[in-house]
Amino acid sequence: MRQGIAIALTAFFMTSSMSLVHAQEKVLNLYSARHYQTDEVLYSNFTKQTGIKINRIEADDNALFERIKNEGKNSPADVIVMVDAARIWRAEIEGFFQPVQSKILNARIPANLRGKDDGQGPEWFGFSTRARLIVYDKATVKPADVATYESLADPVNKGKVCTRSGSHPYNLSLIGSMIERDGEKATEQWAKGMVANFARPPRGGDTDQIKGVASGECGVAIANSYYYVRLLRSTKPEDIAAMKNVGFIWPNAQTSGTHFNIAGGGVAKNAPHREAAVKFLEYLASDEAQGYFAEGNNEWPAVAKVQVKNPALAALGKFKMENVSIASIGKNQIAAQRILDRVGYK
Ligand code: FE
Fold first, then answer.
1. pLDDT at position 37, please?
2. Is the Cβ–Cβ distance between 190 and 150 less than 8 Å?
3. Which of 42, 13, 17, 11 is nearest to 28 (CA)?
C-alpha cells in the first residue's frame, strides 16, 4: 500500500516536473489586443520555426489592462501586444513590461518606435505603423475642404462628418496629438465643431465610416489606413463598386504631418517564459513577420528596409509623419477624454 503511494507520488512528481520543463521551453502566453484574423499565420509560422506553442488571450486594450492588473505578480502573461501608442505608453507607466536587451530588436526597430532605454534596454517595441486617414466622397466633397483634421470642424463640412466613437483609443490618440500641437482650448473648439458637423452620431468601427462615405451617408470620415486598403483589395463586387466613389487624403500633409499609430508590445514584467517571449518579439521584427504585417493586414512594417509586397498599400505612397512623441500623446489622453465629455462627442 505504502509502496503504491510512493510509486504514485513519484509518478506524479515526474509528470509534473516534466510538464514544467515542457512549459518553460515550449509555451508562450500571449496577451494581445490585435484583432485581425490574418495574424493566425504569424503565430503558426512562429510555432513551426521554434516549436513554441502560443496560448493566446485576445481582448481589447481595456480588458487586457484589467486582467493584467488583477493577475498582478501571478500573471501568466509572457508577451503583451497593444494596438495603440497611448495604451502601450500606459502599460509602460503601469509597470506591465520589463526591459529587453536585444541586439536584433535594437538594430531593426527604429528608435522612435521603441520605448525609452535607461541602460537596460527598452520596455516595448513597435512592430507596425498605421496612418489615420481622411476619406471622402469624390462626388460631393472637395479635397481642399478636408485637407487637415482641423478642417473637418469647419462650417463648410456641416452635416458631412462621420467617425467612430471619440473615446476609441484610435481617436483619443489622434486628439492627444492635436492637444500637443494646437493646445487644449483650440482642440476643444475643434471637437465642438466636429459634433456640429456630424452626418450621424458616432457608431461602428472605421470600416463602417468608409462604407458610410461609399453609400453617400457621410461626405467625409476618419479611418485607419489598413481598413481603407483592406476595402480597396476586396474582391466583392459591391466593395469594388463602392470604393470607386471614395478618395483619400494624407491629412495635414502641408502642415504638421499625418497622425500615425503603432501596434507593438513587450515582455511582461513577471513573464514565466522570458526566453520564449524575447524570441517572439525578435520573430515579429524578422523579414518574414514584417512582410506579413504588410501583406496580411495592410500595415507598414516598422523595419524600414523590408519591402512591401502589397500593391494596394504601396500605391498609397509615402507620407509625412507627424512629429509628436508617443509619451505626450499618452499623457494627453485624460485631457482628450475630458474635452469629448464636455462637447458631447460620444
Ligand atoms: Fe484596428
1. 84
2. yes
3. 42
- Can you tell me the distance from the alpha carbon of 28 to that of 322, in angstroms, rounded to the nearest whole number? 35
Which DSSP string do the residues of 320-345 spell out, in sequence order? PBP---HHHHHHTHHHHHHHHHHHT-
Q: How far apart are CA 333 and CA 34, in angstroms?
A: 20
Distance CA 176, CA 338 (A): 11
Q: What is the CA(132)–ligand 1 centre distance, in A?
A: 11
For the chain, give the percent of residues with pLDDT over 90: 90
Residue 170, CA atoms < 13 Å, CB-side half-sphere = 21
> Which cell numbers hold the place of 304?
524600414
- Distance from Cα 289 to the centre of ligand 1, integer Å: 18
Spatial separation of the C-alpha atoms in residues 190 and 339, rounded to whole Å: 10
Q: Cβ distance 276 to 25 under 8 Å?
A: yes
How far is it, in rounded angstroms, from Cα 261 to Cα 174? 9
Angle of helix 85-93 relative to helix 61-71, nearest 10 degrees, comes to 10
Higher pLDDT pick, 109 / 15 = 109
pLDDT tens sequence across 46-75 = 999 999 999 999 999 899 999 999 999 999
DSSP conformational letter for 35: -
Distance 13 CA to ligand 1 centre (A): 45
Q: What is the pTM of this model?
A: 0.89
Q: Are residues 152 and 213 in contact, defined by beta-carbon separation less than 8 angstroms?
A: no
CA of 306 to the centre of ligand 1 (A): 22
Lowest mean pLDDT among 16-25, 105-114, 236-245, 301-310: 16-25
